[in-house]
Amino acid sequence: MLGTPKLCSTEWASNPHTAHSVVGFAIESPNKDDDTQWLTYWVVYGVFSIAEFFSDIFLSWFPFYYMLKCGFLLWCMAPSPSNGAEFLYHRIIRPFFLKHEAQLDSVVKDLKDKAAETADTITKEGEEKTIH
After folding, report:
1. For the chain, how many structural domains are there in total?
2. Is the pTM of this model over 0.90?
3. Where does the sequence pass through the membrane (predicted)?
């Protein structure tokens, strides 16, 4: 178990080598099928990361959680047409997003408006402090 959390953590995703691999092998390749495979993987990985953020405190207490997580991520990355990312995206994520698309668009718009409003407020406060 020693080192397992680090081995299966998400820190490797921000590694420059990983970024080089994705850019070098997926984006810059003439074959666009691998682009779709990697984009699908990152969508699934993003949903998984959000779910894990809220549940990791409970899941980490289960024996072999990090090994199962590592296996899950490897299944999602498997270089086959029926890998985990494709399966999860087409069976769960895509139908969910299509069903709730209008609601999600509304939430995103609200967040965008609130972020713009907050940025304006901060800018005005900064200008007032520099004037005085």
Report:
1. 1
2. no
3. 39-59
Q: Which amino acid is at 42?
A: W
In 10 A of CB 48, how many CB atoms?
Answer: 19
The full 3-state SS of the chain, as one line of letters, equals: CCCHHHHCCHHHHHCHHHHHHHHHHHHCCCCCHHHHHHHHHHHHHHHHHHHHHHHHHHHCCCCCHHHHHHHHHHHHHCCCCCCHHHHHHHHHHHHHHHHCHHHHHHHHHHHHHHHHHHHHHHHHHHHHHHHC
> Would you say residue 105 lies in a domain?
no
61 inside domain: yes
Q: Which domain holds residue 86?
A: 4-99
